[in-house]
Amino acid sequence: MGFGRRAIRLALCCAGVALITWTAYAIPVNSLTVGLAYLLLVLVIATTWGFPEALVASLGATLALNFFFLEPRFTLTIADPQNWVALFSFLVTALIASRLSTKAKERELDAIEANGTNVDHGPGLDRQNDLSDARQLQCQHNAAVFHPKGTTYPYRRA
User: Fold this and answer.
1) Which residues of 107-125 are buried (b: 16+ CB within 10 A; e: fewer)?
2) For the whole model, what pTM was predicted?
3) Are residues 128 and 102 in the same domain?
């Protein structure tokens, strides 16, 4: 992956953390709600893009949660030791979710190779044909279930 693409992803991760922080600060909510919102963001980023981006998001979420929402506010210190659990959960979530996502993608590629699909055809060519056949079968099934006998849906390619 190129440096420019990675830089854009990292900037989007920081923007996501900033958006949640601004929204939660503008609409007064408790720290648990904000923490869950950050956790969801880290999960989405980890499963979509991977660990480096999720690491940046989790560090940003940790700093924002600590600075804006945990007592004492507007400092980077934690008065209650139980809040350390919340702060470290972002990093653990980023690591686990990105690892699980990577494993799932590897298994998908292994399954494609095991089925003998020739990936030299180009990106997504065989998958596209499978999807159009699946759409046609779904239309026929819907017509059989939801309409009287003899009624059909004409299938048009988009």
Assistant:
1) eeeeeeeeeeeeeeeeeee
2) 0.65
3) no
